[in-house]
Amino acid sequence: MLFNKNIKYFQVAQGVWGMRLLFVNVYIVANRRGFPKGWVLVDAGIQGSAKRIIAMAEAIFGPGARPTAIVLTHAHSDHTGALEELLEHWDVPVYAHELEIPYLTGKSSYPPADPTVGEGMMSLMSVFFRKKPLDISKNVRIIDMEEGIPQLPEWKVIHTPGHTPGHISLFLPLNTTLIVGDAFVTTKPESAVAALSNIKHISGPPRYMTTDWVAAEASVKILAYMEPRIAATGHGPVMRGRELQEALRNLADNFEQLAIPSGGRYTDKPAEADETGTYYVPPFKSTTKFKVVVGLMAALAGFAVTRTLVK
Ligand SMILES: [Zn+2]
Ligand SMILES: [Zn+2]
């Protein structure tokens, strides 16, 4: 891999960098002086982005740079798309919460997305949906929630379920930096236009893939309680300071009105999962509206994404 000065990434905080891959972010987190040397990659982007992720790492740390581990906020395909390719290049441990392991070891699939609440982003995502479950059993490690991640000793791991059962966020108490994952996002994920253009707007977790809204609300309340000064989310730009704290407090206080979709598949009853994977999915309520909208949007988004990737 060549050292690439032109790779576009951004600084989140000291020792934390991010890069946007079409509509999803990945982050690199380095340990401070006085702590074990090294850095980790948080999440692994969409399929086809391994080269850009490696180029980002080499732009920051120099040619041949490799992480000590990869940490996953969750295993959705837009956060694990480049994982297998990255592991061929960097054979490192991949840390995830125990409840996320079935989706990383080929044992279970996530409950189906809810197309009645998805629209734009759902269609975008569908281009990257994985057909068969991911299996990286050789590399995967369960996060010890008491001990945290050995390669990232200063960061606290917070279980933030709802979007997925084993979703986690990472928190650095020193400067209250939060790597959120999809527990909340800073764009309107239901709009493909907003997601692609990175318009800033704090929202709950992406609706079409969130399968437990009671847990999702509790998770946002926990994160608001931490009063982060910096939030780096899976989708959308970094938010900071008062703007972040006010918007996050508002989201936590008014979660039902702001985040929970009315009449969605998972609104009344959650999908249920344990350490063996998904074991209950509420029945699908069919409407005709979504078929037309999703069909149209899928065609449009597929076209837009193909064009962007080809460029
Ligand atoms: Zn997700
Ligand atoms: Zn996501």
UniProtKB/TrEMBL annotation:
Gene3D superfamilies membership: Ribonuclease Z/Hydroxyacylglutathione hydrolase-like
Pfam family of the protein (one): Lactamase_B
InterPro entries in UniProt: Metallo-B-lactamas, NDM-1-like, RibonucZ/Hydroxyglut_hydro
UniProt-listed SUPFAM superfamilies: Metallo-hydrolase/oxidoreductase
Boundaries of every Metallo-beta-lactamase domain copy: 23-235
Regions that span the bilayer: none
Signal peptide: none
PANTHER family in UniProt: METALLO-BETA-LACTAMASE DOMAIN-CONTAINING, METALLO-BETA-LACTAMASE DOMAIN-CONTAINING PROTEIN
Full protein name: MBL fold metallo-hydrolase
Lineage: Bacteria, Pseudomonadati, Bacteroidota, Sphingobacteriia, Sphingobacteriales
